[in-house]
Every structure is written in C-alpha cells, then in structure tokens.
Design goal:
12 strands, single chain, 2 domains, eight-stranded mixed β-sheet, 9 helices, alpha/beta, D-Maltodextrin-Binding Protein, domain 2, two-stranded parallel sheet, 260 residues
C-alpha cells in the first residue's frame, strides 16, 4: 500500500515538474521564440534535397525534431559552409546545428555527446591517375578543401609535399574540378558520395584518413540545457529517428558513435 502511494506521488510530481522543466529548456535553447537551425547545402550531414525538392539532412531534420519537442517553430538559416555556422552560433545568431565536435570548435560552441561518427576520405574525378592514398603526397598534387573545415586544418600536417587549395563551398569544389584546378577533394564521406553522384566517373578512394564525431552544437552559456540535449540525442539514436534521417538524406559513410 505504501509503495503504491509513493508511486502515485512520484507520477504526480513528475506531471508537475516536467512542463516547468520543458519551459525552462525552451527559454535556454530557443530564447527568441523559435529554434534557429544553421544549415549549408550539399552535405547530408547538414542539408540536401531529394528528387522531389524536399530537404533532408542531420542538421535540418534533427533541428526540426528538437523544435517540435520544445514546442517552438523552427527557423532554418542558410550559410555557404559549416565554418560560417559555427561563427554564427558563437555570436548568438544561430541556436543549433550538427557538426564535427573538434577541440578548436569547442572553444567557440558547446557540444552534446556524439550523435554519430563519419569517415573522412578523398574524391578523385574520372580518369584520375591517383588510385590510392599513398600517391597523394607529391609536389604536383593539389588537394581541395573547404575553407574553415577540419580538412583545411588537418591535412597540411599529413601531407607535406602536396598543395592544399581552399574552396568557398562544396558547389565551388565541383566547379574547380571541372576547370582542372584541383586533383582531389578531402572531406567527410557523406559529402563525397553526394558529390560523386553529380560527377560521372568520380571515385572515392579506399580507406579513410580519420573520423568526424558529429554532435549538436549550441551557443556557449547554455550548458545547463545540455542534459536535455543529450537525452534528445539518446532518444533519436535508440528510437529509430536517426536511422530514418540517415536513410532519407542518403547519408553514407557513417559509423555508430562511441559512448564514453
């Protein structure tokens, strides 16, 4: 009898506390009344469109799902590249995105636990003479990277002889390939697969040169909302939502995130 009364009391308290808790998270995560989600086109980790013109992607769909749980509208804010989104979050102009949780970016934004991990690789155009990673580090090889990306920061340490060529965006990279300005492009494999679909004969080299650990990024100063965000991440991982988003976005090259 006592146990049953305690159980009923716990349920009653939960009903009283949960709305207040949700309201508090809403104020922290979406202080302007809507959740501003930073996206950039061309990568399934952010936003791509299907044949019918409908948008999909990790940032796009997870942002929409979190906004729904918070009970607020979602406001998608477009940028050319992920580095611009990180800057916007740092400046309080964007509330949410999903991106690679690097130590450098952790200086500017706060991260949730990892959502998923994705392989980093190289894309070469049709008829490229490069067949494997061992053939890249030569003085006559030009590696395309996106400005402000993990690739731009990391690859100069890995390849001392090859030339690193920064690009403004994924779209610009495809144009650079067509003009013969780069020999290969380095980024995460979901983006490379998306690009290869638009470039007949293009190939993604075997293997990888590392992993990106994708996580939810929110502005600094909102860390008291991270338990709520981490619970949200666990829910989408275990409830099938994340799998559905990956399938809809055509996200290839992903592996399950490791838990600490």
């Amino acid at each position: 009898m006592i146990t049953a009364r305690i159980a009923r009391l716990v349920v009653a308290l939960a009903l009283l506390v949960t709305p207040a808790f949700a309201d508090g998270e809403k104020q922290v995560l979406a202080p302007g009344g809507s959740l501003r989600v930073g996206i950039y086109p061309g990568s399934p980790t952010s936003m791509v469109t299907d044949a019918a013109g409908k948008p999909h992607g990790l940032s796009y769909d997870l942002g929409g799902e979190l906004a729904k749980q918070l009970g607020v509208a979602v406001d998608y804010v477009r940028f050319q590249r992920v580095a611009d989104i990180v800057t916007a979050i740092k400046n309080g102009e964007v509330d949410f995105t999903v991106t690679n949780a690097t130590p450098a970016r952790a200086n500017d934004v706060s991260f949730s636990q990892p959502v998923l991990s994705i392989e980093l690789g190289f894309l070469v155009p049709a008829n490229s003479a490069i067949s494997n990673v061992d053939e890249i580090d030569r003085a006559d090889v030009r590696i395309g990277v996106t400005k402000g990306s993990t690739s731009e920061r990391t690859l100069p340490q890995k390849f001392k002889s090859a030339t690193i060529v920064p690009a403004e965006s994924v779209k610009a990279v495809i144009e650079m390939f067509s003009r013969g300005e780069i020999d290969l492009y380095a980024t995460n494999k979901p983006t490379l697969f998306e690009m290869s679909d638009q470039m007949p004969g293009a190939r993604i080299l075997d293997g990888n040169w590392g992993l990106e650990h994708m996580a939810v990024a929110i502005p600094k100063g909102r860390e008291n909302a991270l338990p709520f965000v981490n619970h949200f991440v666990q829910e989408v991982q275990t409830g099938g939502t994340l799998d559905a988003i990956q399938q809809q976005a055509g996200l290839r090259g992903a592996v399950k995130a490791k838990r600490d």
